[in-house]
Amino acid sequence: MPQGKVDPANIPDDGLTTRQRRMLPITAVHTGPGKGKSTAAFGMAMRAWNQGMRVGVFQFVKSPKWKVGEESVFKRLGQLHEETGEGGPVEWHKMGEGWSWSKKAGSEEDHARDAAEGWQEIKRRLAEETHDIYILDEFTYPIKWGWIDVNDVVETLQNRPGTQHVVMTGRDADPKLIEVADLVTEMTKVKHPMDVGRKGQKGIEW
């Protein structure tokens, strides 16, 4: 497994110790046309849960009727933490069924307003350091569609307190998001079974 060794020529002159550098918050973007962007983000969240970190997942596009397998797993992990203290607390929120802090029925919500409300809530949580890791799933789309101001996102991420990690997923990530990120992965599709007419399968797509 990689040990995180750094070329001495690339060590920043920031006055930080190795331990302090290990505690720096990570901003990550998973983008590109290939499959696996959300899956990789949920994998990072699972690692974080195992370390006792507070996990917050916010899905910005998926329908409330779309039950991804990871949602069930993480809700069970949250229950396990509540029952035994193992791992960390988990919150999972999905636009379309109504954000949990919103009392309005999600099915009739205007999606642009939903997305804007969701982002404002995440900003509040970042300011209060509510979670240790945030998964903003399919977050690039409301930015692309103009529902969320990318400049506000960049400023918030750059100025967030503490060591909160933020992972954003979705195609066509805004260049400003890529610029502010510490970790950017582009998923490139080489082949996909749907290209030849095959359907999505349980355990693979959901």
UniProtKB/TrEMBL annotation:
The keyword Transferase applies. The keyword Transferase applies. Keywords: Transferase. GO terms for molecular function: ATP binding; corrinoid adenosyltransferase activity. InterPro entries: CblAdoTrfase_CobA, P-loop_NTPase. One of its GO terms (biological process) is cobalamin biosynthetic process. NCBIfam families: cobA, PRK05986.1. This is Cob(I)yrinic acid a,c-diamide adenosyltransferase.
